[in-house]
Design brief:
Elements (H helix, E strand, L loop, with lengths): L2 H8 L4 H8 L3 H9 L6 H21 L6 E5 L4 H6 L5 H14 L3 E5 L7 H6 L2
Parallel strand pairs: 1-2
Helix pairs in contact: 1-4, 2-3, 4-6
């Protein structure tokens, strides 16, 4: 495993999604993931930034009062981007962190367009 592959997995990105996130060709992301080519430090920093945003979103929900946490699941990458995430996988990693950190009920709604709870947590 390489630092790129570990951070990509932690961020919830597939190789295709990582290539899109970093605006590089899929072959480039594959070469970083396999260790065939060295991954630039700025790319690892971008992944760390995304992971930090996911962690901050999870931390945002943990201390809030209420009986449940409502998160709106995007149906595709365009909906995930409207919620402030680069793709569905990155949103899912954030939602997983919310579930892991909270002892409250977490309700995942399937219609991202109807509410803004998940979007609020992305702007921290």
């Amino acid at each position: 495993m390489t630092p790129f592959s570990i951070l990509t997995r932690l961020a919830g990105l597939s190789l295709r999604e990582a290539a899109e996130f970093h605006k590089v060709r899929l072959d480039t992301a594959k070469s970083w993931s396999s260790g065939r080519n060295e991954c630039p430090a700025r790319v690892l920093d971008e992944l760390r930034g995304l992971i930090d945003r996911q962690e901050n979103s999870a931390a945002f929900w943990t201390p809030r009062k209420g009986s449940a946490i409502f998160l709106d699941e995007p149906g595709n990458d365009a909906e995930a981007q409207s919620l402030g995430w680069p793709c569905v996988g990155a949103w899912g990693a954030m939602a997983g962190r919310v579930l892991a950190k909270s002892h409250r009920a977490v309700i995942v709604r399937r219609d991202a367009a109807q509410a803004s709870d998940a979007k609020l947590g992305t702007h921290l």
